[in-house]
């Protein structure tokens, strides 16, 4: 951790002073780019809370086979696959912000609904919640990526694309770390448990850990909706607002 802090600081110092930086930190002075990038990071943190935790629920609580776990988890990416192209096309016509904000609100609602799962639920109870999350992420991702790429000049498109990929990868890692930390803090025995080995009291403790881990993911998704709402160029908006009055 100490090494990461030292070399992270050194990296940012070099990038700020270099004439040809690998990562142009000046891009983050752009409000649209900064907040849309943060939204990407938070969305993948929230997504990977599901990717990491849902299999544990399906295995330990519903006693699914590995094949059934995989089939159930397909629901979310399938929903995203169908919604994302439509959302991207509509955002090109009507603007990106409303789709990004609404999409992350839907994803947050889906994560909150996941927190209500219990031992008496079935496969359908999981699948429809995953579909809700997939719809929300599908609405969000294409417009948000468009917002990031549209906020930089053409000669910085490569760097912007790289930052999207970096935010995505860091979000994946943080999502697993945060979800795992919440779950194992509340149900530490789950780290070494085998499917079907829980006592009734351990099952309740495990479900409580899942509950708060999903709540944490929902909070992060709601925060991503807020940062998407803030991803607007105030100068541009100010110019639009002043335009009619100056012409009058």
Record the SSE blueprint.
Elements lengths: L1 H16 L13 H31 L4 H8 L1 H20 L2 H18 L8 H28 L6 H30 L13 H31 L3 H14 L1
Helix pairs in contact: 2-3, 2-6, 2-7, 2-8, 4-6, 5-6, 5-8, 7-8
Annotation keywords:
single chain, 248 residues, mainly alpha, Growth Hormone, Chain: A, 0% strand, disordered C terminus
Question: Can you walk me through this structure?
Answer:
The protein is 79% helix and 0% strand. With 248 residues, it is mainly α. The protein has a single domain, classed as Up-down Bundle (Growth Hormone, Chain: A). The C terminus is likely disordered.
CATH-scheme architecture: Up-down Bundle
Largest sheet: none
Categorize the overall geometry.
globular
Q: Report the uncertain regions.
A: 235-248
Strand content of the residues, in percent?
under 5%
What is the CATH superfamily classification? MFS general substrate transporter like domains
Number of strands: 0
**Helix and strand sequence:** HHHHHHHHH
- Give Rg in angstroms: 21 Å
Oligomer: single chain
Enumerate how many helices there are, as a single number.
9
Number of domains: 1
Structural class: mainly alpha
Query: What portion of residues is helical?
Result: over 70%
N-end to C-end Cα span? 59 Å
Concise summary:
The protein has 248 residues and is mostly helical. 79% of the residues lie in helices and 0% in strands.
